[in-house]
Amino acid sequence: MKGLMMQQPLLVSSLLTHAERHHGEQEIVSKRVEGDIHRYRFRDLAKRARCMANALAELGVLPGDRVGTLAWNGYRHMELYYAVSGSGAVLHTLNPRLHLDQIVYMIAHADDRVVFFDVDMLPIVQAIAARIANPIVFVAMTDRTYMPASDGLPGGVLCYEELIDASDDDFEWPHLDENDASSLCYTSGTTGHPKGVLYSHRSTVLHTLAAALPDALNCSAWDTILPVVPMFHVNAWGLPYIACMVGAKLVFPGPRLKGDSLYELIEVERVTMSAGVPTVWQGLLAYVNSQQLSFSSMRRTVIGGAACSPAMIAEFQEVYCVDVLHAWGMTELSPLGTVCSLKPHQVSMPPDERLAIQAKQGRAVYGIDMKIVGDDGEEVPWDNASAGELMVRGPWVVDSYFRCADVRPHRDSWFPTGDIAKIDADGFMQITDRAKDVIKSGGEWISSVDIENVASVHPEVASAVCIAARHRKWDERPLLLIVRKAGSAVTTDELLAFFDGKVARWCKPDAVVFIDAVPLGATGKVLKNRLRDQFQDYFLTA
Ligand code: AMP
Asked: N or C: more exposed end of the chain, with fewer CB within 10 A?
C-alpha cells in the first residue's frame, strides 16, 4: 500500500523560496572583489536570483545546460547557485587555483555554455578563452563601473548587473524532477584528468537536511555563518544551502582569507560559526595570537578537508573558547561524511582523552553508511586498531562520474574513498593513511603522478617518486625522491628549475632528496608506504 502524502520533489529552488517567505529579513553580508562591503537580505537574494533566471533564459541557457563560475564567496555567486540550478540548468563551479590546462579541460569536458567570473579572474578567462573550441558567453560579475576590457575575448564580456537590471523578477521556479542534475564539481583528488561529480536536486536537499542537524554542523536561525571554504569546493560544504534552509545570517569573505581580514569580519558581523581547511585557521590563529585578541561571538568552527591537529583543536577550545567540529568529506560525498561531535558519555572524559577523540574524523551523519575493508575485501572490526580502506554509501554519494561511463568507482555497491581508516566501538572513524596517490596542500590537490612524470623525463634522472610530506603551514607538501643516473651530479636547483612552466608554481616540489634506489614490492610496484614512513616528517625536521 502506498502512503498518502503530497508528492513534492526535493528541489534546490525550494530552499530559496523557504528563505524568502520565512526568513526574508535575514542578512547576507559580502566582502566584495571590488573592495567594499555589500549587504542585503534573503528577500533581495530571491528577487535577484529570479531576475538572473530570466537573464539566463534570454542568453539561451536551456534545462540541463552547464553554466560555469570562476568566483569567490559572495552574494552574486550565491544568486547563481539558485538561479542556475533552480531554473533547471547545472551550476559548474570551477576552481581558479587549478592549472590552466585543467580549467580548460573541465570547461570543455562539461561543455559550459556560459562562464560567470569575478573581475580579478580576468587573466584566467583571457588565457583560457582562446583554447576552448565551443562558443562561450563570458559574464563579469560586477557593475558597469568595474567592467574589465574585453581584450582577448572575441565574443566580448557581458556585465552581470546589466543582465539583472534588464530582467524582470517575475519568474516561476519550474517543477523539475528531483533526480535532475543541479550542480557539478570536478575533483582532482584522483589520478588522471579531473573527474566531474554531478549532484542532483534530491542529493543536495537531503545533504542539506542532514548537514544542518545538531550533531552534524548544528546550524540554526540563531547563527551567523562565515563560509571560508570556497564556494568552488563542493558547494562550500553545503553552507549556502543550509543557510537558506535554517534562515542563518551569511557572511561571505570574498577573495581575502588572511587572518586580519577574517578576524575583522568575524568580530564586526558577530559571526557564530565558520568552516574551512586547517591552513586557513592557522593563519587566523597566528594573527589573533600575535595581536593578543579574542573572539567575542564565535562559538564553533568546522575544520575539515585535511586532518586537524590536536594542537589546533586545543588552542581553539582552551585559549579562545571556540569549539572545533572536525569533519571529513569528499567531493564525491557532496561532501559531508562524518563529523566528530561527541556522544554524551564522552563529555565527562579527562581532557586528554576527549581531545584524542576530537582529533578523529568522527561519526557518520545519517544518510552515510561506512565500513572499512582489508586487502581481501572483507570488513574489518571496529576495534580502534584494525585499519582498512574506508568505503561509503548513501543518497549523496557519487554513483558514476560525469561523462565517464567507463569508470565505475564502486566495489559491491560501496564507494571506495581511497582513505585508510580505523573505527572505534563508538563508531568514530580516524583516517590513518591514504591509498590514493595525491598530495593535499592547503586544501588543494597535487598529483604525485604528474610530478613524477615531469621529473622522470629529465635526462639525468633514473627514477623519480613524489610523496606527501607533512608541513606545518600547508598540511602536506610534495617531496621529490630522486635516483640519479650513474655518473650524474644533477642538483636540487637544476631539478626544481626543470618544473618551471610544466606545472602550476604552487605544485612544484619543495625539496629533493637523493636516494640510492626505490624500494619495490613483489609485483614491481613502488612501495610508497615505506618511503612515506621514512620521509614524511622531512619538512618538520629539516
Ligand atoms: P576533496 O574531494 O578535495 O574534498 O578531498 C577529499 C579527501 O580529502 C578525502 O578523501 C581525504 O583524503 C581528505 N580529507 C578530507 N577531510 C579530511 C579530514 N578531516 N582529515 C583528513 N583528511 C581529510
From this structure: N
